[in-house]
């Protein structure tokens, strides 16, 4: 099963689930290369509308009749085998690729593939490297799991040998990639609806690092125990980073009034340069170190690294400032794992505020259940937590776990917490209880950001 980006341009490619961030990015890459593209999704979105304006045939809803003169099918891991377009594709014997397989095929057309993996921080670190390579005028192709202003969306098609992309571990999809530089930011328990346990997750990351050629590089977080263990087993070059350990280190870390860090970057004992970040939190120091290490391997100048990191103000939904209403600052963050939530709340501590109100929308029943105990202790230090109903995504409610159960457990740990079902009711509650100087934080991977936006409008 092969796909040649440069020689298959006469074929029509159909994307099942084209509205996803990564899928829409792949579709856009093909459109810019002159391919015929079609795709389907359950609902319209700004991404599908953008693709339609660019020439793609977009269908809302999945139907076997959507497959019109299609040569290649690309589908996401979330699409079930019962999908009518999947069934029809098999019946017609159309060549089929998973999203990851198709992305890997596109990567093969480039020499310097930088694949950023890790349970947390992939989108931010990918965006940091994107800014740096753009500052160096490398004209990279970029595929990022969020909206990045500097490229006007989630994808940029370059004409060079450089390809920058996230490498997601869900369903081991990153094992279809071809990294020259493989970045591992951290290894944590997640996606336990697919992986048996944390050891199975670590094993998947080991397999990912084994994809790096001997003349390539593993960029690994030496402060993360499991990542450091994986780094000891590879046969390629290794450049590690960290605050406490590693080759590329951050020293003399300080935070400004908006919780953004400045630090001195070192390669072992050698001073390299000073960095000023425009994104908050200590976790972003580690993300920046991963970006710096990757950039040094690519021989990018110190000036471009400094400028690129300074100019990166964050991607949408990553500690994103949404606005202010009656003295209440609203910030939205994509964090949906206990470790990510703790990192976001650590950044909030250095951000100006009187009280912190957090609205959390759990993402998927399986994650809520498997990490239930970790979620109950992840919100330490905030003044009040409101838990919205679980965002089901690809799953069905079996009644085994609920937001009400989680709210009761959080309350038992001494944090004031309520489960409010309706977004409108949450916004009303916030208006009744927030005061001048408070900070409202909306957290989760679903549509919880709408609560902050509605609060600012009402």
Helix content: 25-40%
Distance between the termini: 53 Å
CATH class of the largest domain: Alpha Beta
- CATH homology-level superfamily of the largest domain: Mur-like, catalytic domain
Number of strands: 21
Count of DSSP-assigned helices: 15
Ranges with pLDDT <50 over ≥5 residues?
none
**How much strand content do the residues show?**
25-35%
Q: Within the CATH hierarchy, at the fold level, what is the topology of the largest domain?
A: UDP-N-acetylmuramoyl-L-alanine:D-glutamate ligase
What is the spatial order of strands in the main beta sheet? 8-7-9-6-10-11-12-13-14-15
Give Rg in angstroms.
Answer: 22 Å
How many distinct domains?
3
Question: Structural class of the helix and strand makeup?
Answer: alpha/beta
Shape: globular
Can you name the CATH architecture of the largest domain?
A: 3-Layer(aba) Sandwich
List keywords for this structure.
alpha/beta; Rossmann fold; Protein-Tyrosine Phosphatase, Chain A; 3 domains; ten-stranded mixed sheet; 21 strands
What does this structure look like?
The chain has 458 residues and is α/β, with parallel strands linked by helices. It folds into three domains: 87 residues, 3-Layer(aba) Sandwich (Rossmann fold), CATH 3.40.50; 202 residues, Mur-like, catalytic domain (UDP-N-acetylmuramoyl-L-alanine:D-glutamate ligase, 3-Layer(aba) Sandwich), CATH 3.40.1190.10; 138 residues, Mur ligase, C-terminal domain (Protein-Tyrosine Phosphatase, Chain A, Alpha-Beta Complex). Strand 4, helix 3 and strand 5 form a beta-alpha-beta unit. It is globular. The model has no long low-confidence stretch (mean pLDDT 92).
